[in-house]
Amino acid sequence: MTDTVTTAHAVEPEALKSTLATLLGAQARSIEVVREEVTLTVAAADYFAVMQTLRDAPASRFEQLIDLCGMDYQTYGDGRWEGQRFAAVVHLLSVSHNHRLRVRVFCDEDDFPVLASVTPLWAGANWFEREAFDLYGIVFEGHDDLRRILTDYGFIGHPFRKDFPLSGHVEMRYDAERQRVIYEPVTIEPREITPRIIREDNYGGLH
């Protein structure tokens, strides 16, 4: 006697797009298929409700959250971007239907970016949301333990923001006299590093 394993066939992107359009209606700001991948964009106000629908509805059944990351669009498109600055991008997987989805949601405010936490839906979002908070300053309302996860407690700012200085704001060192770690204003002078461009004719013997 042999065991039989049934594997769901992958859903075509256009079919998934149609399913999502029917399922979400006006809650879907846009649904795009690029390079055979589906990206759904939703408003911050609808974010949690949409994610719950995507997890629970029989037509979608996205049981797993694979990844969540922050985004800063400040300099996107060489400055031609006119939308909101901060967003979260989430990758979901449906084991039941064998399909994947990218969900993008923009924060309403640039000065204080806030989104609902999806940790009540997927516990695995915990550290991902902490990382997005640490690196981009996105606050996830409803998160039980939203604190830095990669930088230390004395860190100032959010290092993945496009306007964050490469040298940072403070530096850390051990002070032997005080016998403890201290923070001081950074002493590295900011400078632009421009790569050397070789323009000699026939460089390297190439014609």
Give the structure's gist in a few sentences.
The chain has helices spanning 13-24, 47-56, 125-136; strands at 30-34, 37-42, 64-72, 86-94, 99-106, 114-116, 139-141, 170-175, 180-185. With 207 residues, it is an alpha/beta fold. It has a domain at 13-149: 2-Layer Sandwich (Beta Polymerase, domain 2), CATH 3.30.460.80.
Written account of the structure:
It is built from 3 helices and 9 strands. It is of the alpha/beta class. The chain has a domain at 13-149: Beta Polymerase, domain 2, CATH 3.30.460.80. The strands form 3 sheets. Strands 1-2-5-4-3 form a 5-stranded mixed beta sheet. It has a two-stranded parallel sheet with strand order 6-7. α3 links the parallel β6 and β7. The longest helix is centred in the first third of the chain and has 12 residues, at 13-24. The model has no long low-confidence stretch (mean pLDDT 87).
Short key terms for the protein model shown above:
207 residues; two-stranded parallel ribbon; Beta Polymerase, domain 2; alpha/beta
What's the SSE blueprint?
Layout: H1 13-24, E1 30-34, E2 37-42, H2 47-56, E3 64-72, E4 86-94, E5 99-106, E6 114-116, H3 125-136, E7 139-141, E8 170-175, E9 180-185
Parallel strand pairs: 2-5, 6-7
Antiparallel strand pairs: 1-2, 3-4, 4-5, 8-9
